[in-house]
Specification:
Number of strands: 9
Structural class: alpha/beta
CATH class of the largest domain: Alpha Beta
CATH topology of the largest domain: Rossmann fold
Radius of gyration: 22 Å
GO molecular function, one term: O-methyltransferase activity
Bound molecules: S-adenosylmethionine
Number of helices: 14
Keywords: Methyltransferase, S-adenosyl-L-methionine, Transferase
Pfam family, one: Methyltransf_2
Shape: globular
Protein name: Methyltransferase
GO biological process, one term: methylation
């Protein structure tokens, strides 16, 4: 899957091929507005309200208490973006929007939209400073309580689709009984594996303010004692010796420097039981010179800005694993999320 500009007729194809279409105008003017429109629509409750069924502009204006003209403009754009259809003066969510933008669907990314609108959007103003200094924001050190809550809700939203595929395809031993989920937050990865392997229990190691906000999200899964929290810090805590069959580091390596990741991987190798697996579940930075890939590259820049670290290549991740004495096992690319993979090593 790739996000591209596609032409709709031979004349447009000619214009694009002859390099006559000012593509950067799309990036400079159209795409920022598209992104902000989706985020603000989520935050103002537009997708939630539209979930009640097809409605006129007047009905939505009244339900949302918004300005009629401005809402009409927003809905026009969201219709062009295939979030809505417009027929007989009625706006209706498309199946795509009903699944992924309507907040009550289990696969919704609505929480990520709200977090990006209220918190991460403002970080983008610092991109120029980051480019000059190379110093990112290190947001884990400065979030307010509300921001921790939006962040943890965003992590659930970002993972709902992925967790299903992770549960189906992660190469874990069927006899596993103990799992460590480092930076596991809401615990969706632990939950899918515990549901699949009846004897498995999991410990989620995360920062205390994250656990405070994530605990209610995990409780919704009804796993009882099988998935438990351990407040701590992956950079400073010992993980034990020969204690786990599965250790997962999902979307945390991109917040750590290469040196920190090596340190964490060394502790993982000690904490794994023989035959146990270590899964680094991550967005992957495309190797320089390889086929360009938007998701791996844009998240790389975003994590640089937000954490000073960034994405790593498959070879870099496998390098930490091998230096820690683990054996290369598998690389599994997600089918539902381009640019993301499980990089798996075995003890
Ligand atoms: C981007 S989220 C990923 C959450 C989850 N693993 C997933 O894949 O959806 C990163 C998580 O790591 C946690 N985290 C950040 N720094 C950490 C540290 N030093 N030790 C433990 N957890 C940390 C954050 O609190 C957050 O819950």
């Amino acid at each position: 899957m790739q996000l591209t500009i596609s032409t709709e007729n031979p004349l447009e194809w000619l214009v694009k091929t002859a390099n006559l279409a000012p593509v950067p105008l799309l990036h400079a003017q159209v795409m920022p507005v598209m992104a902000k429109a989706v985020l603000e629509a989520a935050d103002k409750g537009v997708f939630k309200a539209a979930g009640a069924g097809p409605q006129t502009l007047d009905q939505l204006t009244q339900a949302l208490n918004l300005n009629r003209k401005a809402l009409g403009e927003l809905l026009g754009l969201l219709t062009a973006m295939h979030y809505f259809t417009y027929k007989n003066e009625l706006f209706e969510l498309t199946p795509m929007a009903r699944r992924f933008a309507f907040p009550d669907d289990p696969m919704s990314v609505h929480g990520m939209m709200v977090f990006n609108n209220r918190v991460a959007w403002h970080w983008l103003d610092h991109l120029g400073d980051y480019l000059e200094t190379g110093k990112g924001i290190h947001y884990h050190d400065s979030l307010t309580t509300d921001e921790w809550q939006y962040y943890q809700e965003a992590m659930v939203a970002a993972t709902s689709t992925e967790a299903k595929e992770f549960g189906r395809r992660a190469p874990v031993p069927k006899t596993a009984t103990r799992m460590l989920d480092i930076g596991g937050s809401h615990g969706q990865h632990s939950v899918v594996l515990c549901k699949k392997i009846p004897a498995l229990t999991s410990t989620i190691l995360d920062l205390p303010p994250a656990i405070e906000q994530a605990r209610p999200l995990l409780e919704r899964q009804g796993m009882g004692d099988r998935v438990q929290y351990q407040p701590g810090n992956a950079l400073t805590d010992d993980f034990g010796t020969d204690a786990y069959d599965i250790i997962l580091l999902s979307s945390l390596a991109h917040h750590f420097t290469a040196g920190q990741n090596q340190h964490v991987t060394d502790k993982v190798a000690k904490a794994l039981r023989p035959g146990g697996v270590f899964i680094v579940n991550e967005f992957i930075r495309p190797e320089t010179g390889s086929k360009p890939e938007l998701i791996g590259s844009s998240t790389d820049l975003f994590y640089g800005l937000s954490s000073t670290a960034g994405n790593y290549s498959i070879a870099e991740i496998q390098g930490w694993q091998q230096q820690a004495g683990l054996k290369k096992h598998k690389v599994i690319w997600y089918r539902t999320l381009p640019g993301r993979a499980m990089v798996v090593a075995k003890k």
